[in-house]
Amino acid sequence: MANELVSELHEIFPPIEIALPTRGIFYPTGVLGPNTDPKHIKVGTLGILDNLKYSDPFMLVSGNAMDHLVHHICGDQITLPQELCEIDLETILLAARRASYGPNLKLVHRCVFNKPNSDPTEPCDHENNIMIDLDQFILRYGPIEDESRFEVLLPRVGQTVFLKPTPYRTSIEVMRNVMANRRKMNEINEHQDEFIVNPEMFHKYEDLVMLSTELQIQTLLDCIYAVRTRSGVLVEDPKEIMAWILELPKSDHDIISKQIQMLTEEFRKISLIPYECEECHQINEFNLQMNAEILFLAEAEDSVAPTTSSAPPVKPKNSFRTPSRISRRLP
């Protein structure tokens, strides 16, 4: 028997339907549910457990909080949330915020510039009220259509590398390792006098360098979907690609890394919010990312007359995105 209390909540707060920007083309079997259509993902509302777990930094870094949250708001449509590309996950979180609190999101941002025509060291620091229309903002996350951006030809070896947006799992691993490595490096810095004469201290430093190197290589692997040989064979096995990466000359590594950085920067610009400071009238900008504070605590406003309105998106040159569909799905 259906729970009438829950059914009424779903009538008041129906799920929102979105299309994943990646269209699911980068995912192997098992990441999405067997009957999932990446162009029609239903996203439900956020619950109290989502709030408690997603707000816990240790749960977040472990990845468990995101697993719980995505499974709750998307059900069996997403089987492996950590394998989602970041851009898809951002879209899902935006839709969850919209479904839970409505389209109007009120934020406060402090001006980062110094006051003009005054002491150059005197910060403006004015608190600006920013109102964001999530129905308009989510349109930035349109489907990726020009897949040629993700192809990198290595001219010297004649092989073609097919990239993919950064997976959420990779971001969590990088965050976790950076935190751990920073702590270890601080310990080494505290014993600099012993570094040269103490072999154990040197080995700790050597291990730290190796871990950092391995992380960079793993991050590169995580952003590669497949590699096509000169004869036209498409290799998708991560183990084979890893062995290939380790043998690849640095100059070819640099070509791949440069393209990954370009794509990452382009994706970063999607969430960029520019606005004019009310006090000093200089143009600020910040990235709207659905962290715990914004996802659960930021104000939802019914009015549409904010003190400072969010500016339209800054579109990168040769944009390959088209507006995504977003609509209320009534039971």
Strand content: 15-25%
Low-confidence stretches: 303-331
Order of helices and strands: HEEHHHHEEHEEHHHEEHHEEHEEE
Which structural class fits the helix and strand makeup? alpha+beta
N-end to C-end Cα span = 17 Å
Number of helices: 12
> What is the 3D shape?
globular
Nearest-integer average pLDDT: 84
* Strand segment count: 13
Radius of gyration: 23 Å
What number of domains?
Answer: 2
Approximate helicity band: 40-55%
Largest sheet: 4 strands, mixed
Spatial strand sequence of the major β-sheet = 11-3-4-12
Q: What would you note in describing this structure?
A:
- The protein is an alpha+beta fold and 331 residues long.
- The protein folds into 2 domains: 4-145 and 269-328, no CATH class; 168-221.
- The protein is 42% helix and 16% strand.
- It has 12 helices and 13 strands.
- Strands 11-3-4-12 form a 4-stranded mixed beta sheet. Strands 5-6-7-8 form a 4-stranded antiparallel beta sheet.
- Mean pLDDT is 84; it is low at 303-331.
What's the short version?
This protein is an alpha+beta fold. Helix content is 42%, strand content 16%.
Keywords:
331 residues, alpha+beta, four-stranded mixed sheet, four-stranded antiparallel sheet, 42% helix, globular, disordered C terminus
Ordered list of secondary-structure elements with their pairings:
Blueprint: H1 4-12, E1 16-18, E2 41-43, H2 48-54, H3 57-62, H4 64-74, H5 86-101, E3 104-110, E4 127-133, H6 134-137, E5 151-154, E6 159-163, H7 168-189, H8 192-195, H9 199-222, E7 224-228, E8 234-235, H10 238-247, H11 250-270, E9 272-276, E10 283-287, H12 292-297, E11 299-300, E12 308-309, E13 327-328
Parallel strand pairs: 4-12
Antiparallel strand pairs: 1-2, 1-13, 3-4, 3-11, 5-6, 6-7, 7-8, 9-10
Helix pairs in contact: 2-4, 7-9
